[in-house]
Queue: 3 jobs
Job 1
Amino acid sequence: MPTVRVRLPARPQNYEIKIDAGSLRNLGPAVRACLGNGARRAALISDRTVFKLYGRSVTESLRGAGLAVNHLLIGEGERHKSFRSLEKTVAFLSQNKLERNDVVVALGGGVVGDVAGFAAAVYLRGIAFVPAPTTLLAQIDASAGGKTGINLPAGKNLAGAFHQPRLVYIDADTLQTLPAREITSGWCEAVKQGAAGSRKLFDQTVAVLRKGGADFSLWLRERQSQTDICATIAAHCRFKASIVSGDERESLTRSDRHSRRILNFGHTTAHALETVTGYRRFRHGEAVGYGILVAAEISKSLGMLAPGELESIREAVALCGPLPRADDLAVTQIAKAMAGDKKSMAGSLQWVLLERIGRAQIVDSSEIKPRVLADALRVGLRRVRTGKR
């Protein structure tokens, strides 16, 4: 089982990200080993689809480790990252009398993890949280780092808290049951991480995509393929851990290439796309795919990114799979939604752009002329022509 250790200098307690195939049946003992003998109850938060697939085995594993388990199913999709879902979850924790020694376990994708993590952060001023992410996007990005949150009508992730997990438990076998769009969404996030922070990670991700990374039902049949997939997930978790360890709370005073803010590459446009479509058209990673293309176009227009690098990014996004249509959305509406982005400082939007693949730079929106932004949106939001995987 590959293990990635997340070290947080400002906190006495670090945590591990454990990755394997077929490991969910061992979640209970792992949680017990992490929390010790004080924990008595586990609140299992999931959604209907994921719980139907894995709920029984996870419940049995947790109970086998001596934990009393009750489960709550929340709605599926970004529109359910809301105060209503948060209130329902916190009330569930209270009704089941969870105490400070107990644990919230999130079984599902990013929405489940964000809501469950936020509830764990605010209930009793913070109790233990263990995500068991079941989507590629959540496994490589959302489950680690301590960001939890919900959406507001004004924009994405505008309410939330930093609440580090006690353990992240990844079973790569869950990828076999993902719909095609969820796989595309996860790979877009993987391309984002490599493009923003590591050329080696970018190349590794593209190599897996070219080899056929979309079909996990084939990849995970053989032990060597399982090892390759787990190694790729581990590489992304290791990269994320390296950024989080040095900048846990995304310091606003930092703009270097190790700043956690570089992980927002592609997200300025992505969050705007999700907002203007009411969180109903795009999976998060699909919106990030378009955001990557828009940010890369701006980077080229500003003379930062070489044309050949832009083509490599376009190819990588195309390899991830088809994206929903975006070129029918009004550029002015998208630009207006960007104004409410949580990355704004002193009323000015902060863009994460690229000097080259693997090296990001934070640029104030005042340096981007409206015409450059409008042109980048028009070009970047064109229907992506998918490549062979």
Job 2
Amino acid sequence: MPSPVYKRILLKLSGEALMGNQGFGVDPLMAGRIAQEIKEVHELGVEMAVVIGGGNIFRGLSATAQGMDRVSGDLMGMLATVINAIALQDALEKINIFTRVVSAIEMRQVAEPFIRRRAMRHLEKRRVVIFAAGTGNPYFSTDTAAALRAMEIKADVILKATKVDGIFDADPVKVKSANMYSEIRYMDVLRQGLRVMDTTAISLCMDNNLPIVVFNLLHPGNIERVVLGEKIGTVVKV
């Protein structure tokens, strides 16, 4: 079996990934499936951190568009990510993978506060670290939180799990003839306004030369394939 090409990764999951076929909330079966895929990669000896969104429970931007204060909406969205992090932790620990939920908003009864050196020590001890509550600040998305945390823990790559096979030159759901990139530069993502991650996250990765692999989570085994170096999805790099 080939060896992993990355030693330490940060996996970015959307909150919608936990919904499964439901229209809202957390599907325990889907959480279990994702946990099993994380376990398979973890057992290869890869150190893993996860950032998960909260869109399956609450979207701050959507609420803002309907008249809610932006700061209030973003705070509620950050709390939704904590719910998802606990759900994923439960699914992982049921299959004997030790985890730590680390929150940017202090809530010691349910999660550890984010302390960079402690988080890195958990990774070294072979624990999966789930970063919750974004950056702890409004106006920053969980994409930006993923880029920030990946750099803080010195991850080799961000794996951005999506519902499509990679990055396309048009929306593949609406445009059947859309072409997928196998590789693309950060600057081209920004210039073309491709909706991969928000511009702050892409700029952070570009400034720190942190590669991003965008791939389809719906195909079982894809996380492991990416980690083993198979040509899956789209690589964003310099």
Job 3
Amino acid sequence: MAQEPLRYRRILLKLSGEALMGAGTFGLSPEVVSALSDEIQSIHGLGVQIALVVGGGNIFRGMEATALGMDRVTGDHMGMLATLINSLALQDSLEKRAVTTRVLSALEIRQVAEPFIRRRALRHLEKGRVVILAAGTGNPYFTTDTAAALRAMEVQAEVLLKATKVDGIYTSDPLRDPAAVRLPRVTYQQCLERGLKVMDATAISLCMDNRLPIVVFNIRVPGNIRRIVLGETIGSLVSE
């Protein structure tokens, strides 16, 4: 059986912590983690090299804690640790599917994760391992969106896949505004000028400066990641 041609051979997939909650309001949904692992296993089987950046908002949000009076740096570090919990959960689920993974953390916790070293991450990808990049950038005041953009450039990903609850970029929140219109293709500049809720401005600017395309898509539709890497037009594309 002939191998299907790939549009993207190395990707960075950005998952929000909320994506792992399912219908819950806190923590991890085993069903959602299992379904995501099936999706990742599917594209891994095609030969796609996969890096993942996972948020931690299902466990702890530094910005919300800051609003309640916590020191911003402390809150952000707690949020980074939340991303590590999610990363370990995904690693466990993937390895149950015989997908070899490595968790690389921007905060050093050697008992459970390797420190993030760019050359090591590249080597893991070349060997066909799924690389899960935890703890954001390791610095406060930066979101996991910015971490995803930064890591995508560092590991030389061909595209940044931004997983969301909706099927692309809209003129306003489609879950609240029935008049919202989906935009199948936008430029980086339009995202910044119109305040489109894609990723934060720092992440968009990083991608624009380095010409890294972003595909925003609905992670809740089974098979969407596979369709994207095989070249189907799914969701919305942000490019020059």
